[in-house]
Write a structure and sequence with these properties.
By secondary structure, this protein is of the alpha+beta class. The protein is built from eleven helices and 14 strands. The chain starts with a strand and ends with a helix.
Length: about 325
């Protein structure tokens, strides 16, 4: 099922600044007129004041405080560390629909800051008020820490790797999930799992309820549950279900069929929904044999671009000497 995704940004409105600029949002409201006359538009402060940033920033903070008791503390820590953030400087925001098919693979392939900012210019901000892999707090955002982006990128990449391993296991290839991607521990009859690189997820087995067949195939069963549960947890509350038309149909027992429409205003929701569809439709994903980036399989292609293909060739020739 296709997803309709809307954003309010234009590419030129996406910027990357360090979080210290958020100090400007702590200024008293009655200082704003004086600042507008004092600072030029081509400064960060001037750009914020000339855009509708302050209004949307206040909306973001108000909603953030409603979902997270430490939202102000988060902002203070970002400012204190002067951490890089991605900013949206909205100007007369109007919804723009974006095609997000294939966005999950594209998102997982992001590596450099330049990659991330170019992706954000195309699709906008993630739309998360606080970082989480479960019960994500969605909302309109005009700034997001860069490290949130990197955490989500790594998460999607892990899930794509798990998806690839499950496909190989189904073809009877000798490859492990437990020990390669995840670890598990047993305690009081419960088996819980965690990523080897760090991070738990809300999935466990009750050892007493596992039959012999399941125990023999626990590696693949655990992988399938981890994959689907991880995507489901992020998608919760992100997708709206509606209908665009009601079509008369003789084949339907009620005389008509509903034409469903799925939509989201949050990029991270679109990314995980695309990942869900990718899994459901058995799309073939390839990890570049040189740099490890993800891409959708096309023919016998082994590298994500010609540069990686050339570099791999040079490395092979060097090794032959």
């Amino acid at each position: 099922m296709n997803l309709s995704f809307s954003t309010i940004h234009k590419p030129e409105q996406i910027k990357m600044y360090n979080a210290s600029v958020l100090n400007e949002m702590k200024l008293e409201p009655d200082l704003e007129p004086a600042l507008k006359g004092k600072y030029e538009r081509d400064t960060v402060r001037g750009e914020m004041l000339a855009s509708e940033f302050e209004k949307f920033y206040n909306v973001q903070v108000a909603k953030g405080r409603g979902t997270s008791y430490n939202y102000d503390f988060l902002i203070d820590k970002l400012i204190e560390g002067d951490l890089p953030c991605i900013f949206l400087m909205p100007q007369s925001p109007l919804p723009v629909k974006k095609d997000v098919k294939g966005v999950a693979v594209k998102f997982a392939s992001l590596e450099t800051n330049k990659d991330i900012i170019e992706f954000a210019k195309e699709y906008g901000l993630l739309g998360v008020l606080n970082f989480s892999y479960r019960n994500v707090d969605y909302g309109l955002t005009v700034f997001e820490p860069l490290y949130w982006w990197r955490l989500y990128i790594n998460h999607v990449k892990r899930l794509l790797k798990l998806y690839e391993i499950l496909k190989k296991k189904h073809k009877n290839q000798s490859i492990d999930i437990i020990g390669e991607l995840v670890n598990y521990k047993e305690e009081n009859g419960m088996i819980t799992f965690e990523w080897i690189e760090g991070g738990n997820f809300s999935f466990y087995f009750n050892e007493e309820k596992i039959n012999d067949d399941e125990l023999e195939n626990i590696d693949a069963i655990a992988g399938a549950y981890i994959l689907t549960t991880s995507v489901k947890d992020v998608l919760r509350s992100a997708i709206n279900v509606d209908f665009s038309d009601i079509i008369r149909s003789k084949d339907s027992e009620i005389g008509f069929r509903i034409k469903e429409v799925y939509s989201t205003d949050y990029l991270i929701g679109a990314i995980y929904y695309d990942l869900w569809n990718l899994i459901s439709n058995d799309v073939e994903i390839v990890f570049c044999q040189h740099c490890g980036r993800t891409f959708t399989k096309s023919g016998r292609k082994k590298y994500c671009n010609d540069s990686c293909k050339t570099m791999a060739y040079k490395e092979r020739k060097k090794g032959e000497k």
